[in-house]
Structure formats: structure tokens, C-alpha cells
Specification:
CATH class of the largest domain in chain A: Alpha Beta
Helix content of chain A: 40-55%
Pfam families (chains A, B): LacI, Peripla_BP_3
Protein name (chains A, B): Putative sugar-binding protein
Structural class of chain A: alpha/beta
Number of domains of chain A: 3
Keywords (chains A, B): DNA-binding, Transcription, Transcription regulation
Largest interface: A-B, 55 and 55 residues
Oligomer: homodimer
GO molecular function (chains A, B): DNA-binding transcription factor activity; transcription cis-regulatory region binding
CATH architecture of the largest domain in chain A: 3-Layer(aba) Sandwich
Strand order of the largest sheet of chain A: 2-1-3-4-5-11
Number of helices of chain A: 13
Domain HTH lacI-type (chains A, B): 5-59
Chain lengths: 347, 347
DNA sequence: CTGAAAGCGCTTACAG
DNA sequence: CTGAAAGCGCTTACAG
């Protein structure tokens, strides 16, 4: 493996200075068209590529973005929430389209993750993605902000949290799906999913849910709420607890994965979905469509979300103003809530 | 945003030379223990991080690996094959565990992807991941090899292809799942999935399938084979074509996604799985377990695969010898083949 | 339009 | 154990 060519080698071969090579290769208008083309030809023949380390060092930026994924600590490696994966896909594309590279990393709370990438100039900005139990990170987020790190969070915008958020309107999503359930005639309800400050996204969905329950004139004190993280198993366990008592007409789950577990629990009791109990999820992951009972759920447009995240982070990097942004959710009605209507919207 | 501290700032504050700071921060045994600790303390207080661009430039390597994902061109962004995602997860973890960063990129054939990362010193090595229609890339792969780029492919090892492969034994997987079907008493078979050189993984599964069919004494010329790429829709369409004729007892699908589509097609004809037609998939993706009819499939251990890919790429980078490696597949029996036995293996 | 030169922030022989 | 110095391969004022 012969050592790689440098701009000096090209310069020598082209009979020009190294500066000119650098300019030519970056399409500077300062260099003569023919010279530029000659240089480019030689560079291509030699399979020369600008050394990013040198170029980044000199330019003091890396042309790369970092994506920090926060997983639920309990979830199995091979069982990453498909919603995040979908986001990963769209973020990757949007990043590439903007001419940036993407560094991906899964984080767990113990790591000294904060700022690492940006401080070491490996990334110009950070995207934080995870079901928002950001309370644990709050200190680190403020630290990031203090240091002037450019970062964006996916999740519920919240004045109390440091940094700028882009997310989907969880409250509205909770409202819409619950309204649908009420309109279908369901009268007693349970909710599965963490519904406190540590999980602002789930909390938003829960709040929307409760608001509709109250508006519809039901006794909110009769609503059962069980905590669960976003896994099938956690949903299964929570649902089993709910089913020990008198079972509700409808169970609203804070995520599709939770809903999958709830459906398994309901079946294990010899009950049928939606005949005995209606179940709805949230996220519109792929499974929700192909599940034994196609799931009524709320779709968050990951395509748009990824583009928004990237374009706004880029603005931040370029010192342009950026504000919180809330995307509208979209109700996807399938069979699990008992209306019999099937939609093949998206995946 | 004040400008970042450099090793010179630390040196100044610690009253030592910049060389000593650099050594201390990289835990060189050459520096006095107390000096080292003093320096580290200061660095931490200042939230100093070594500039990776400078350090990489000097060291002539980047401590990062690049993962190039090749998608089927037709598949929707939000519908990335879950198998790859699972691999992504384990590769990310293994990379981090080895102290490397991971650059992720989705490739499409038009891009001048080859070598970009390694040539520009942004990555020390490449992992190529995709359903192996590597024929299209063959030229580029040879080019990579010629340039001395360190890369590894996920997929079927094949003497005719440039580069080293790590993959799962597709032939054996095809053999096992077909043997299972035969043992269950199925007597007429169809196969859905590209079965030619352009898709060596699917081809391996198909060859294993055909071998068993022949060994079992069935007329191989009666076997129907329809091409399909790894999407639900493609599987659906192929199955619909098959169902126009006399339908087989069992349909072997080259991937779970294809199998999901086949099941939908069968249902749309008013037939039942497995009562009327047995269906099996390949990959053991999450959906295969939660599907309306849990799918009999072949599991590829993505956890081990990711670790193998990373550790072997690292060997390649360190100029240690690396050879092709074939992992054994694992049959997962669920309900879709008609034996009624349910396994909750893994996800 | 072009070239000579400085300098981005490190790591690591080299000398002590 | 420590420091002065070279140099990794670029980009970009500066001067012409």
C-alpha cells in the first residue's frame, strides 16, 4: 500500500503551487479554468482525496454532525425502538444531502458523553434523540448550553429545559386518539406509560388523554394509569396488572411497543382485541401495521422530523436564530380500536 | 462563546511544556504521576478536549470506522430492513467498545462512495452492509482492494468477489428450514426471492432449499420461483402471481419482509396460514414474532455478527490476517409452518 | 490569476 | 522524567 498522494504531489505534477491545487480542488473562482481542470484530472487519476483531518483542522470545523441516541437502559440491543431507527434513517439522509457526515453513537447515562464530539471538533453540532427522560441529563444539557455547544433535542419543547427542541405535539396526539376512542363509544379507560416529568413525551400524551376523558364527562379518578417504558415486555406486565381488576373498555398505550405487549396480555387472558378491549398505540412503527390486530396509532412524520432536525441544527451552526418547533401528529385508524376500518397509510 | 482551550493553555496553567501536557493526557508512563494528575485536573476544569482533527492529522489515523449501508433502491426511507438496523445497533456498540467512533452513511449506487472515507482519512476502515447485490459494486470493490483500503463485507463469502466477507451460512439456513417443512409433510413448494448471482445471500438460501427438495425426492422442476426484493410489497406481488396457479403447500421466502407480504396475499385470497399454505421467512426480525401468524424463520445472530465485523476490521487495520467467516444460522420454529409449536426465542 | 508563507493543534522523535 | 522543535496536510490572508 503506497502512501497517499498529497496536494504537493499534485502540484508538482501539474507544475503549479500547492496553493493553486488547494484552490482548484475547492472550486475557487480564483483559479484559471484550464488550470483547474488540469489539476482535477490529475487528482482523479491519482485517486487523490483531500485529507479531512488537515482540512478540518485548518478550517476549524468538521463538516460532520453527531447523533446521540438515548436508549431505554433495559431494552435489548437488537430491539431498538423502530421509531428511532426510522428517525436515524431520515437524519442520515438529510445530513448527507447537506454535505455533512454523520457520527452515530448510542449513549447510556454513565458515559461522559456530553460535548465530547463537539469539544473535540469531531462534530459541529449534536442531535439528541431518545424518549425524553431528559431529567437525568438536565445538568449536562445546561453544561452543553453554557459551553456554547450547538445541539438540538428531539422531543417536547419545554421552557424549563435547556436547549431547543423539535418534536411532535404529544398532547394533541393524545387528544386525537382519545377523542376517537370516545366517539366509538368506549366508556372506561386505562393508560399505560410513564406519565411524569421524567418522560415529557409520554406525559404529553397522557395529558391529552386525560383532558378528553374529562371533557367527555367521564370520572377521571376511575382511570387506571400504569407506568411502563417503551418495550413490549414492559407493556405486557403493566397490562397484566390492569387486567387483574375489572378490565377497561379501552387501553391507551404511550407507544406501539407497549401496545404490542398489552395485546399479548389481553390474549393471554382469553380476551379479544378489539371485541373485549380496544387498544391503541403511538408511533406507527412497522409492526403496528402487520400485527395480528393492526393497531390504531398516531403517526409522527419521521421524514419531515429528520429534515427539520438537520436543517435547524445547521442554522444553529451558522448562528442563525432557531426556535422550538412542534409538528402536528396524525391519527392512523386501524382495527385495534374496534371500528373495523383499515388504513394502509405509510408503513 | 469563548474560544476553546488548547494544550498550550493547559501547559501555561500547569507550568509545564505543551509536550508534557500531551503526554499526560494520553496517559504516557513517561510523565510524573503527580504532574500528570495536576494536568488532568486542570484539563477537566477547563473542559478541555484533545482536538481530534489535529491529533488524527498527526497520528495519521482517525480512530473511526465507517459503516456503509446499501439499501434496496426501491425501499421507503422509513422502512429500512429491520435486520440491518439490528446490525447497526450491534456494530455501533462494538465500535464504541473498541474506542472507535462510527460514521454511518446510506449509499446508493450513483454515489462516488467508494473509498471516500478512507481516502480522506475520515475513517480507518469500512464495513459494507446490504443484501448482497454486490455485482453492481464489483468494480468498485476491486478498486477499494487495489488502493489498500481496509474493508469488510457482510454477506456470503465468495472467492469470485474481492474483499473479505463475514456472513451467515445462507445455504445451511435454506437447508434447515426446508428440511423442517419437508418433515412436517409439505409436498409442493414455492420460493420467493431473487435467486441469482446478483443476490448471493438469497441465492444461497435458494440453493439450500432446492438441495433439500431434490434430496427428499420431489420433482424440482415443479418448484415455482418468483423474484422479489426484500420488501413486504414485493413479497405480496410475487405471492399473488404464485397464487394465480395451483397453490403450493409451502412458500419459502428469502426474507421475513417478503414473508409478511406473502401472508397478506394468501389471506386476500381467502386462504389461511398455515392451514392452507405454510409460509416461512428468513432473518427473525421483530415483526416475525408479533405477526398475526408468528413466523417460522431463520435467526442470524446480529449481536455476534456486529462484534465479529468490528473485531475483524480492527485486525485488518492493524495488519493482522483475517479470513472469511461463516456463522451458523439458527432455525426458529413458530406457527406459520403448521406445527403449532411456539418459540419466543430472542426478540 | 498565482505563489510563498503562516498556522490550525496536536504527537513524537531527539536531546538532555 | 521534561522541553524545544519538527511536521502531519491542508486553507487562506498577503503580496504581487
Amino acid at each position: 500500500m503506497k502512501s497517499k498522494a498529497t496536494s504537493f504531489d499534485i502540484a508538482h505534477m501539474a507544475g503549479v503551487s500547492q496553493s493553486t491545487v488547494s484552490r482548484a480542488l475547492s472550486d475557487s473562482p480564483l483559479v484559471n479554468k484550464e488550470t483547474r481542470e488540469r489539476i482535477k484530472k490529475i487528482a482523479q487519476d491519482l485517486n487523490y482525496k483531500v485529507d479531512k483531518n488537515a482540512s478540518n483542522l485548518r478550517k476549524q470545523h468538521s463538516q460532520t454532525l453527531a447523533l446521540l441516541l438515548f436508549e431505554d437502559p433495559t431494552s435489548d440491543d437488537s430491539l431498538i425502538n423502530p421509531f428511532f431507527i426510522s428517525m436515524l434513517g431520515s437524519i442520515t439522509k438529510a445530513t448527507a444531502a447537506a454535505g455533512y457526515d454523520l457520527l452515530v453513537s448510542f449513549q447510556n447515562m454513565k458515559d461522559d458523553w456530553h460535548a465530547v464530539y463537539e469539544d473535540s471538533n469531531k462534530a459541529d453540532g449534536l442531535i439528541l434523540l431518545g424518549y425524553g427522560s431528559y431529567t437525568d441529563y438536565e445538568y449536562k444539557l445546561s453544561q452543553l448550553e453554557e459551553q456554547g455547544t450547538r445541539f438540538l433535542r428531539w422531543g417536547a419543547p419545554d421552557k424549563k429545559h435547556p436547549g431547543i427542541s423539535i418534536g411532535c405535539d404529544n398532547f394533541l396526539g393524545g387528544v386525537e386518539i382519545t377523542k376517537h376512542l370516545v366517539s366509538l363509544g368506549h366508556r372506561s379507560f386505562a393508560f399505560i406509560g410513564q406519565a411524569d416529568e421524567s418522560a415529557p413525551e409520554f406525559k404529553g400524551r397522557f395529558d391529552g388523554f386525560m383532558t378528553v376523558i374529562a371533557q367527555a364527562g367521564f370520572d377521571t379518578s376511575k382511570v387506571v394509569q400504569k407506568n411502563a417504558i417503551s418495550t413490549e415486555l414492559s407493556g405486557y406486565k403493566a397490562a397484566m396488572e390492569i387486567l387483574e381488576g375489572e378490565h377497561p373498555n379501552a387501553i391507551v398505550c404511550a407507544s406501539d411497543l407497549i401496545a404490542m405487549g398489552a395485546i399479548r396480555a389481553i390474549r393471554s387472558k382469553g380476551l379479544k382485541v378489539p371485541r373485549d378491549i380496544a387498544v391503541v398505540g403511538y408511533d406507527n412503527i412497522q409492526i403496528s401495521q402487520f400485527a395480528s390486530t393492526p393497531l390504531t396509532t398516531v403517526h409522527q412524520n419521521t421524514q419531515v422530523a429528520g429534515e427539520l432536525l438537520v436543517s435547524n441544527l445547521l442554522k444553529l451552526i451558522h448562528n442563525e436564530p432557531v426556535t422550538d418547533y412542534l409538528m402536528p401528529p396524525e391519527l392512523i385508524v386501524r382495527e385495534s380500536c374496534g371500528c373495523g376500518f383499515i388504513s394502509y397509510k405509510n408503513n
